[in-house]
Amino acid sequence: MTFEVRVDTASPVPPYEQIRAQLSELIDQGRLVAGDRLPPVRQLAADLGLAVGTVGRAYRELEAAGKVSSRRGGGTRVTAEAAPRPPAELARLAADYVEAARRLGTADRDLIAAVQRALAPQ
Amino acid sequence: MTFEVRVDTASPVPPYEQIRAQLSELIDQGRLVAGDRLPPVRQLAADLGLAVGTVGRAYRELEAAGKVSSRRGGGTRVTAEAAPRPPAELARLAADYVEAARRLGTADRDLIAAVQRALAPQ
DNA sequence: GAATTTGTATCAAACACATGATACAAATTC
DNA sequence: GAATTTGTATCATGTGTTTGATACAAATTC
Questions:
Q1: Of B86, B107, B63, B104, which is closest to residue A100 (Cα–Cα)?
Q2: Alpha carbon of B5 to those of A33, A94, B77: distances in Å?
Q3: In this predicted structure, what is the pLDDT of residue A87?
Q4: Tens digit of pLDDT for each residue in B11-48?
Q5: Best exposed site among A62, B24, B43, B68 by fewest CB in 10 Å?
């Protein structure tokens, strides 16, 4: 159950989101399973050269998504509800969608906008 | 060829992007066709209670996308290259993708991230 | 060709957001 | 139960982005 999180400070996507996304993917991939413990916020923050609040935010968002459970004094652990998914499946779906949409002549930006519209139909 | 553009100031997506997206969709839908003229930036800006530069930015981005052509003193018109697409098609593709991804238990955010990853493979 | 119309460039101000530092709260450890 | 560990709340700071105001440039109109 050893893993690594990396943060690219040059990226436009903020560190807390990079951390959240990477941990989320580790859980989805089943490389972190129910009961596994995430490193303490202070440890991960020190490793990455970030503030504790930054890692804390990533943990909080993962908790809101139901993937981990945090308790003060306790720690942060992967929940039983966080079932692993076949990793290639989502990527394949996304690739199929992108290919089909591009064939329609859709610009990348509008392609993502269409997904967002499908997510939250007014 | 009458149309309407609305801006929701409460939305987190900035006005210039709302304008761009709506006009882009009007063009994709074929409700604005090649040669059709967009309103002058000052007129649209006045209608929406925005600054000319805000509308101007939307026009500039549409031009960069090849959907319109702007000329000082002339105006801004839909290009011949901006071919209309079947409107339901993209929405249907997006809806299918969202449904399939959700069936995998994917969170909305990760669902969009997967598309972005498919767009720009590292 | 002068006046007008129309898009663009510039730049300071406003705004939104993430971060870092610090203090606080709750559970565990001994 | 005291000390330690761990997550959270707060808030000022910094950074990037959007906006608004204004001036400028280019085409059209008369």
A1: B86
A2: 48, 31, 16
A3: 65
A4: 999 999 999 999 998 998 788 999 999 999 999 999 99
A5: B43
Q: Are A13 and B102 in contact (CB under 8 A)?
A: no
The amino acid at residue B2 is T
A28-CA/D18-C1' distance, Å: 36
Q: What letter does residue A69 receive in the DSSP assignment?
A: E
Query: Of A61, A65, A97, A96, whose CA–CA distance to A83 is shortest?
Result: A65
A105 vs B: CB within 8 A: yes
Count of pairs with CB atoms under 8 A, one residue in A, one in B: 98
Beta bridge partners of B38: B76
Q: Which residues of B touch A85 (CB under 8 A)?
A: 104-106
Local structure of B68: helix, strand or coil: strand
- For A73-82, the pLDDT digits (tens) are 999 999 998 8
Domain ranges of chain B: 15-78, 87-119
In contact, A23 and A62? CB cutoff 8 Å: yes
Say which CATH class B15-78 falls into: mainly alpha
In angstroms, the CA of A10 and the C1' of C20 are apart by 18
CA dihedral A60, A61, A63, A64 (to 10 degrees): 120
